[in-house]
């Protein structure tokens, strides 16, 4: 069995930044939709449909945002942890090289 324990730390960092950008985009989209009022659309049926969509979108977007933030926080912690381990290993090899 070949076990590869390498972790692409730079990819974790890029993934963390991408998740942060998606959270920002989601918040901006929610804010933009909050300014659209149903009475600006037209017919009563369309206004009612718009109101219903706004309620569902707000709830769904908030739930999605919460889940993405949870994943983002976990990835960020993993990235920081792996980076600390990598630095500690590098420092230990440097110290062993100067002590030997």
In short:
The chain is mainly alpha-helical. It has helices spanning 9-34, 44-99.
Biggest β-sheet, characterized?
none
Number of helices: 2
How many beta strands in the DSSP annotation? 0
Radius of gyration, in Å, reads 23 Å
Structural class: mainly alpha
Gap between N and C termini = 34 Å
Query: On the 0-100 scale, what is the average pLDDT?
Result: 82
Shape: rod-shaped
| H/E element sequence | HH
- Spans of at least 5 consecutive residues whose pLDDT stays below 50 are none
In oligomeric terms, what are we looking at?
Answer: single chain
> Into which percent range does the helicity of residues fall?
over 70%
Percent range for β-strand residues: under 5%
Describe the structure.
- 2% of the residues are buried.
- This protein has helices at residues 9-34, 44-99.
- It is mostly helical and 100 residues long.
- α1 packs antiparallel against α2.
- It is rod-shaped, with a radius of gyration of 23 Å.
